[in-house]
Amino acid sequence: MIKTQVQLPDELYHTAKAIAEQREWSLAEVVRRGIEHMALAYPVRPASKAWQLPMLKEGQFRPDFDQIDFKALAESDELRESE
Q1: What is the C-alpha to C-alpha distance for residues 39 and 16, in angstroms, rounded to an integer?
Q2: Contact 15/23 with Cβ under 8 angstroms?
Q3: Integer Cα distance of 18 and 30 in angstroms
Q4: Which residues contact residue 31 at a Cβ distance below 8 angstroms, ignoring those fewer than 6 apart?
Q5: How far apart are the first and last CA of the chain?
Q6: Mean pLDDT of the chain, nearest integer
Q7: Would you say 34 and 26 are in contact if contact means Cβ atoms under 8 Å apart?
Q8: Residue 81 to residue 75: CA distance in whole angstroms
C-alpha cells in the first residue's frame, strides 16, 4: 500500500470525518472508498493514440511572431487594467 498526503478544503475534511465517525471507519477508509467510487464512475480509458502537437498551417501567425515581446505586452495590459 502506498502512503500519500492530500490537501482538503476544511468543509470537505469535516464532512469526511463525520462520515468516518458515523460508519466507524478511519478517514483513510473513507478516502479509499471515495476513490474506488470515482474509479467505477469514471473508468480510465486507454488512449486511442499518442497525443501530438497539431500541425500549424503556414501563414497562421505574423511573420515576426517569434520577435514579439510577450512579457512587455502582458505588463502593459496589467497597467491598463489597474487604471
Answers
A1: 18
A2: no
A3: 10
A4: 6, 16
A5: 55
A6: 89
A7: no
A8: 10
Name the pLDDT band for 83 (thresholds 50, 70, 90). Answer: low
57: amino acid identity, one letter: K
Sign of CA dihedral 42, 46, 50, 55: negative
Whether the model pTM is above 0.90: no
Q: How far apart are CA 51 and CA 53, in angstroms?
A: 7
Residue 54: the pLDDT is 82
Question: What are the grid coordinates assigned to 32, written together?
Answer: 479509499
Rounded distance between C-alpha atoms, residue 64 and residue 5, angstroms: 47
Q: What's the grid cell of residue 31?
A: 478516502
Residue tagged 471515495 (cell numbers) = 34
Q: How far is CA 33 from the centre of its chain?
A: 21
